[in-house]
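re: that chain from earlier
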Amino acid sequence: MAQADPTQELFDKSVTFADLGLSGPVVEGLTATGFSHPTGIQAALIPPIMAGKDVIGQAKTGTGKTAAFGLPILSQADSEVRGQALVLTPTRELANQVAAELDNLGRATHIRTSVIIGGESSRDQQKSLAEGGHLVVGTPGRVMDLHSRGQLSFNDIRFIVLDEVDRMLDIGFREDIRRILKSVPNPDRQTIFVSATMDVQIERLARSFMKPDAEKITTVSGSLTVAMVDQKYLSVENWDKRSLLLMLIKREKPDTSVVFCRTKATVAKVRSYLQDKGVNAAELHGNLDQSRRNKVMARFRDEGIDVLVASDVAARGLDVDHITHVINYDLPEDPENYIHRIGRTARAGRKGIAWTFVTPEQGQMLSEVEKMSGALIEKMEYPDFKPGPIPRGVLEERATGVKKREKPRDLSDRATVGGVNPADGYSDAELKAMFPDGKIPTTLPPKTLGSKFKRRR
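^ sequence. v structure.
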């Protein structure tokens, strides 16, 4: 008996994109890519946006939220007006991904998108705005910077979108968002907030920026990402991860894969190990400046790299069609990041494969990931793999019952104090210049710096 396509239940077959009032060119572009029916969140969100309402949309990661707000904006945008929509995202990578998707969705229109993010040439971004820039996608810091210098006008903004609004309205972005929204002169602008998660406090704060009749739409349909990806996990001890990874790559021969690690230090070690074993690998993480990230991504897109070892900085912005496999070398601390990671495969309607390494003590973390994805992740047996010897330190810990505290090996592994790492944001070269004796502080100094005088409150 033929198996049902698991993606079919994610689409609303009762309507087509043409039924939702989208413009002819937008529907034409969708038809060319093979899409005729919207997902649940798209079917629910597009009509009120087309009707001019402020909207809060909540749906699982991987259900097509970008198209849900992008399609109606593209349908109503004027090709003669620049800067009529502003889409704000929490990361540069996500900004690039959203902009690429909007350009793809609007391929049959004359509407073009400009990306405004830090770490790249503001001159090039100004040129992009001058040549197109009908829709602007950016991060709050660079958007405010260009606006304050008179290089980005808010005068013609008709649509404002906050993508991943739960993160955008976190403490770190809140004041920037408030300043940007207050700087938009059009009182009749349309405000659209979308997110996978949203607690009561964030929703209350979000509504304070919207019209009183803002409509909230929540869908519970499954994730297109999860349905398109064959997910498996492999049980492995920490010390055996690298050799298991190498065996998987050598034996299974994935065409193009992304290996996700939790820390930048692990990314560097895994990449170095793979290269030493003859694997064409490169690394991508937050310590690379934007120019180096762009060069790595250009090589990866051109299929000049077989294995990209990355931290979660890449999970939300890696939009490359030919990725066949995602390997979670480490489980992410935030289960939602798992969905973003595996969503790097199964692009452009293709199926994908995700393998996840799980250590014996991570059963609860795996359960949280399964809960977030809404799918049971089956165990993948690999009988050919022979575990290595147990490290001496682990044997001693098991014998004594006392776990040794590991000394931080690099900046990525340093403990933070009060949620703040004094070394964050500096390169290794900068830290060596500031602390030539090599003693880099891992704690914050006393607030009074030892003064005997009390500070005035």
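The chain has three domains: 8-218, 224-392, 414-457.
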